[in-house]
Amino acid sequence: MTEIPEFWRTEVFHPLSVHFPVALLLVATLFKIVSLWSRNKVWPQAGSILLGLGIIGAWIAIYTGDQADGIVSRKLCDPTVLKDHENMAYITAWIFTAALVLDLALTYGILKFKRNILKLFLVLMMLTGSVYLGLVGHLGAELVYQQAAGVYTPSEDCLEYN
User: Fold this and answer.
1) Can you give the C-alpha Rg of the chain in angstroms?
2) Model-level pTM?
3) How far is the C-alpha of 148 from the C-alpha of 140, rounded, in Å?
4) Per residue in 35-49, pLDDT tens?
5) What is the 3-state secondary structure (H, E, C) of 90-106?
6) Dihedral of CA 75/73/86/57: which sign?
7) What is the pLDDT of residues 64-100, one digit of tens each?
């Protein structure tokens, strides 16, 4: 009889850590878009805080994804999807990291020329990052739902649950 594996295994930490930064980065993007038209300072400040927290979470998600990669990749039918997922995750994290650097430079007055154009460029960077984030999520869902990446599959008769 097969035993049910422990829930807290390495490959489970990635899905547990990835959803929070996804939400933070998408809401940060929305806040920065609103801040283009609003005179209220809450929108850009909140967007900056969410962006910073989202970036920290994104790099944690990449770390946990790298940990899961070594376990999951051996069991996949098409490991190229995992490689695409990983590559696009790095691109996404770097786009948002660059956006955070630009945001900090604007916030602390390091870049003073054409601030409105730079703010628009910041939002465009974050929108681009959000598109990549959606693509990364799609590939991650493809790995889980089409290839059962990191998913425990019970036996046909489910005897391990008795």
Assistant:
1) 19
2) 0.92
3) 10
4) 999 999 999 999 999
5) HHHHHHHHHHHHHHHHH
6) positive
7) 999 999 899 989 999 999 999 999 999 999 999 999 9
